[in-house]
Design brief:
This protein is mostly helical. It contains 23 helices and two strands. It folds into two domains: 32-258, Hypothetical protein af1432; 263-452, Orthogonal Bundle (Hypothetical protein af1432).
């Protein structure tokens, strides 16, 4: 069979721009948040006289500023008894002052929890708020910097992502850095974030007021001055709402430092981004990497070409990228999901397909991300397609996904023995699951068992 289309060389900006939409989902932001931040922050950098190399680092800092955002989602749900995505969205609208912080805690903690549980959560947050905030920011910022390094970005990009939530006056988190001890790229990224959040939520005037009003506290006054000059031009704001903004942002990358992605680099990026996906929940730690291993073992047993196996590994690493758009109150729920919650879960393959389809050379992978929960008998989701409409590659990843889901620990049960998992899957062979792929999975597990004996 022919592998889903791949491309030896791909513009890094294309790839990162498309993947940034997954980060928007995790932060509860409207689609294109990181793209808009890139437009805003890049032009601030130009106002400051940045050269091509500085602009290139700033460009990727802005697109990837939220790279660590999934790592504190589960903890937010645990501490605040709240939907992590809504929490993060609304938290970005406060300035950190005590009155606003108190109102935020009271207005977002345990609203659907029993009264006693909500009361205990609020008391804990009020008593330990500073340490809790530091813990959440540290997880996000350090994880983001670590993943950026895995994606081969420069120390400048990594350090800027790590310092995203530091403030000019030292009131930020997690390290309380201040002044010129904060990388300027981090300051520009935070300024761009505040600008877009208020612009999309309230409007242009509110965005200007918030940024300028935080000069000397959150931001270096030099940056707010440059921003104010940009903000005075109505065309600056019109562009942020332009339908072709993604193309305009793609064109911003300095011409003489445009970066391309070869196959090895693409593998590294897929593996690194899988860590973003799997960090969303403690119960999905390592899931995408394991699915990639199982899919590769199945493909090897089926005699697939090295090119197909490589494509399948990438698809497996990224198949659940849409889960970044699902609240941890659902992903980590220990009991049975309600109909409404399951309807939310059913959206994640749609998100996966939409995100991956933004990369032309990933169209085959996008299909796998979209269809990996479909069944041969048409009883899968999200679209209920059946039979030959489900590609061979999708069937392999689906088998690997189900096998890992059964054998891994979940919120509602412990891990399942391999033999038991295979026994459960065998009942669905020919009806919901591909028989040839299942037999290949069984053979690969038998070989692994024999090798371990």
């Amino acid at each position: 069979m022919t592998a889903p289309s791949s491309q030896t060389h791909l513009r890094l900006a294309d790839l990162i721009g498309a993947l940034s939409h997954a980060l928007d989902l995790t932060e509860g932001q409207p689609r294109g948040h990181c793209i808009r931040c890139c437009w805003i922050g890049f032009h601030v950098g130009k106002m400051l006289g940045y050269g091509p190399a500085q602009l290139s680092d700033l460009y990727y800092t802005l697109l990837l500023k939220d790279l660590g955002c999934s790592s504190n989602a589960a903890r937010i749900c645990q501490l605040y008894l709240a939907d992590d995505r809504n929490f993060k969205r609304d938290f970005k609208l406060i300035d950190g002052s005590l009155p606003q912080a108190l109102r935020f805690v009271l207005g977002h903690t345990g609203l659907t929890a029993p009264m006693a549980e909500r009361f205990r959560a609020i008391i804990n947050i009020l008593k330990n708020g500073g340490e809790i905030a530091r813990e959440l920011m540290e997880a996000r910022c350090h994880r983001g910097a670590e993943i950026a390094a895995r994606m081969r970005f420069s120390p400048t990009v990594c350090s800027s992502i790590q310092a995203l939530d530091e403030h000019w006056d030292g009131s930020g988190k997690p390290e309380g850095r201040s002044g010129k001890d904060i990388p300027q790229g981090a300051q520009i990224a935070l300024l761009a974030q505040v600008t877009d959040v208020f612009f999309k939520s309230i409007g242009r005037d509110a965005a200007i007021k918030e940024v300028v009003g935080r000069a000397g506290s959150w931001f270096d006054p030099l940056l707010t001055k440059a921003f104010a000059e940009l903000a005075a031009d109505p065309r600056f704001w019109d562009t942020l709402d332009a339908p072709d903004l993604p193309l305009r942002v793609l064109a911003l990358e300095p011409q003489d430092i445009r970066r391309e992605v070869d196959d090895d680099y693409l593998d590294d990026i897929a593996l690194a981004f899988a860590k973003v996906i799997d960090a969303k929940s403690p119960y999905t730690a390592g899931h995408s990497e394991r699915v990639a291993v199982f899919a590769d073992l199945i493909a090897e047993e089926m005699g697939e070409t090295p090119e197909m196996r490589r494509t399948l590994r990438r698809a497996a690493l990224l198949h659940d990228v849409g889960k970044l758009g699902i609240s941890n109150t659902i992903l980590d729920k220990p009991g049975k999901l309600t109909d409404e919650e399951f309807a939310e879960i059913r959206k994640h393959p749609v998100h996966s397909g939409n995100i991956l389809s933004g990369i032309p050379s990933f169209r085959g992978i996008a299909e796998i991300g979209r269809d990996h929960h479909e069944k041969l008998d048409g009883k899968g989701y999200p679209y209920g397609i059946s039979g030959s409409a489900i590609s061979h590659a999708t069937r392999i990843v689906s088998l690997a996904d189900i096998f890992d889901a059964l054998t891994a620990e979940r919120p509602y049960r412990g891990p399942m023995p391999v033999s038991q998992a295979l026994g459960i899957m065998e009942k669905d062979v020919g009806r919901a699951l591909d028989g040839d792929g299942f037999e290949a999975l069984v053979r690969s597990m038998n070989k692994a068992d024999a090798a371990a004996a």
